């Protein structure tokens, strides 16, 4: 799957202009991005792996992390980066414990990429963000890149992004990657709608591609060692 994912990201659409994060990395040992999704199955694992591999190909030491007790996604992270992926878990560990794991694992790395779990704000209760990707991003002081499924969306994508971007004013949603893009013009329409109405920029789009899907099964994906 890894070589197919790399091929996909070589064909991805990148929006015009540099991504200017309105965020300070001073609280983190190295620059860090949290890759989150609007919901499970949106493509955050594939995109996180692609980003990890792309930065690794640029000669950077990328330290991967996974929110939650998952052991399958980290196997793909390790294959993409050559570094052991560590779990960060707000259900079982407090902020200080997670931060200790994070800081120690980042030693010798240039960049950290944290893959979220479920939807951005989904945790162990409906009344708070406890145990969620959003909580972990705030604990780390890291900006979030939100992955959306943009299939069959145009202006409605702006409403979706606005909701996630404004839901928690203490959370830094720094950019959006649109997955399942039909064409470059499709992404242009979404970018036009978003730029007029939303403060969160579109940073790129991933075209629809069946060959880069990671095989799924009950309760998760196939492990990296189980694939060709």
TrEMBL record:
Signal peptide: none annotated. InterPro entries: CbiA/CobB_synth, CobQ/CobB/MinD/ParA_Nub-bd_dom, P-loop_NTPase. CDD domains: CobB_N (cd05388). One of its GO terms (molecular function) is cobyrinic acid a,c-diamide synthase activity. Gene3D superfamilies: P-loop containing nucleotide triphosphate hydrolases (3.40.50.300). Pfam families: CbiA. Residues 33-219 form the CobQ/CobB/MinD/ParA nucleotide binding domain. This is Cobyrinate a,c-diamide synthase. It comes from Adonisia turfae CCMR0081.
